[in-house]
């Protein structure tokens, strides 16, 4: 029997002797518990919330758990008064193996030296096998990755990349914590099933939920993809408000339950201002940890320059996207390089650079929507991977990458207290510094001013969500997301 990775859960209460009462399409395991101390009576209640058929099941006491250091739950305490334990939704790990598929207890599969758990059945026994196997590998400690909008198209590409090890490395086991909505929950179960069926060795836990306070528990990375698209007739101000509320709530949840050093990448549009709202609602997490995804724009810009210069795109470096992920964004051809030379020396058609190139990058998302009938998904997922990898691997000497980051303290004279895409470098420790050797000319300054003005206006428009008083929406012109043309 092949090892099944999903049930290696170090903060998971396991049910023993469970098969007789298992519902046919889910083997339930409970992931992190939201109470500071969880007695078996609480757990039984929690079980009942999910399925009455668990009522008589025996629950292993906490000391039967293998012990991943559990979140200090410090912040969680703050939530207890408003959210009583018994009322919390418990995230689940789902398994598509039904009892009648389990032929027999897999007792013989237990490797020598591992504790034999006679009460386990089928796939549950592999929990112990894999734990023993882990000891023989030089794997890093498990990391928790929360993903919102997890049933959407972007996630459908991203999650499998994360699970395969191509993002965090082949020695980095991960737990995926997937946030969906009431509407998407069934689809989310489908996503979890597909992840299971993929048998990724590094994927050790999958939990799904609708409540960010549950799903973001102990998250070390939060990839915030879910957002409402702009509907017909909706003003940009309306979009900012609707999505802003989602990101205010998620910021609060991160502040309360995520790792204190969680890295947050906001993808849901308008991502810069959503990231600002999110960080303002998470005062206990460093503002520097929040990013708005502009890596897709960087990748698009590199592709266009490579095409024009007739080189492969790996020859393009130092590609900055300045400002907002909108049609005012500034793809900076002044500082970008091709084969280590300034772009303007390789592509001498300045009119093309200022007009065609710039507009092509700004509007690429919209053109793609016209072709596809939906917005970019695979390339967005790839760019999220790129954005993460840029933070966890050292930036090549002399190069940089673009990310929408908190502008306070920036050396470029850009307005403070907004989330603005700028050139960043990382030592590979998850942190970044802003690139220093950047030049400006009048054209670049003027373009940057325009995207800055847009972001400042967006900020005024969401003041009610950032704790800065009454909102005042005077958006300079109804500028567009890249996809809204
Ligand atoms: C993109 O750049 O492709 C997307 O942000 C477009 C959109 O509006 O969804």
Automatic annotation (TrEMBL):
It catalyses: (S)-malate + NADP(+) = oxaloacetate + NADPH + H(+). It is found in: Plastid, Chloroplast. It comes from Musa balbisiana. Its EC number is 1.1.1.82. Homodimer. This is malate dehydrogenase (NADP(+)). Pfam families: Ldh_1_C (PF02866), Ldh_1_N (PF00056). Belongs to the LDH/MDH superfamily. MDH type 2 family.
